[in-house]
């Protein structure tokens, strides 16, 4: 495939391989639950809530700024080797805070890992500070305040992941107001575990320009029309949806039906080692499942760049790479 890859949806801790997490656990003397890995050493993950619990257990092993710097460096150098030209990565400040890492030290480590990858490969990246819905409203607001009080040139977006069934989007209006006032681009996970109403509620309460996943919007044609009209972009992660049982196969993902209805869509790997995928595989599988041309795959990358949380000069450079 000819299309340069662009990814707007990958979580930092979710990008940590099982081997890396085990190595961190030994180095940092953290005991991990036995049942979080399968017999062959992969992450165990049998449904959404189990995935979240394994993910949070893995986070307890990633304990030092060096761990985070190595994680980000490894992710972006490996992804660049597979054809990624631009990536946005979700960063949760809660997980480093829970293991005693100060936010400013955390961001220094993230920037160090990224800058080494950038110097080596030329890859561009930005970061989306992310609150965790089921950690509650208070912690979410603290996350937004961190972004506000410690602006960082690489942190250009704000998001929310976690358990979509927890609370209501309107509970997080103040959190998103703080992030918006800070000048950050806004995205929120919705329409992954829950249906179309969850996406509408997020649009009404939080006014994001992008939705993480959003695939279950397909269940409401009025919502599909609204997404198309308002130009809201969906960060679609088909491999993640298959691993978590939302759809049975790539061909069952509504990504192309959404695109054909005028909704802007991009591709992401979400938590690649958990879901046995990577961004190159997501592009390959979607191209194969829907018999898409290289030009159609390039158009997906173009849509992602247009919706990216980066400055116009960076977008112009990236767009040139799509049309050399
Ligand atoms: N955090 C990491 N991956 C996630 C996902 N797929 N959904 C919600 N929160 C997440
Ligand atoms: Zn996600």
Describe this structure in words.
The protein has 324 residues and is an alpha/beta fold. It has one domain (5-322): Metal-dependent hydrolases (TIM Barrel, Alpha-Beta Barrel). It has 14 helices and eight strands. It has helices at residues 18-27, 48-59, 65-81, 94-98, 103-121, 137-149, 173-181, 196-206, 221-230, 238-243, 255-260, 279-290, 294-307, 312-322, and strands at 5-11, 84-92, 124-132, 155-161, 185-190, 210-213, 233-236, 264-267. The chain has an eight-stranded parallel β-sheet. Helix 7 (173-181) links the parallel strand 4 and strand 5 (185-190). The protein is globular and about 50 Å long. The model has no long low-confidence stretch (mean pLDDT 97). It binds adenine and zinc ion. Residues 11, 14, 55, 161-162, 189, 192, 240, 270-271 line the site of adenine (ADE).
Order of secondary-structure elements = EHHHEHHEHEHEHEHEHHEHHH
CATH class assignment:
Alpha Beta
At the third CATH level, what is the topology name? TIM Barrel
Distance between the termini: 15 Å
Task: Provide the fold topology.
Elements lengths: L4 E7 L6 H10 L20 H12 L5 H17 L2 E9 L1 H5 L4 H19 L2 E9 L4 H13 L5 E7 L11 H9 L3 E6 L5 H11 L3 E4 L7 H10 L2 E4 L1 H6 L11 H6 L3 E4 L11 H12 L3 H14 L4 H11 L2
Parallel strand pairs: 1-2, 2-3, 3-4, 4-5, 5-6, 6-7, 7-8
Helix pairs in contact: 3-5, 6-7, 13-14
The structure holds adenine and zinc ion.
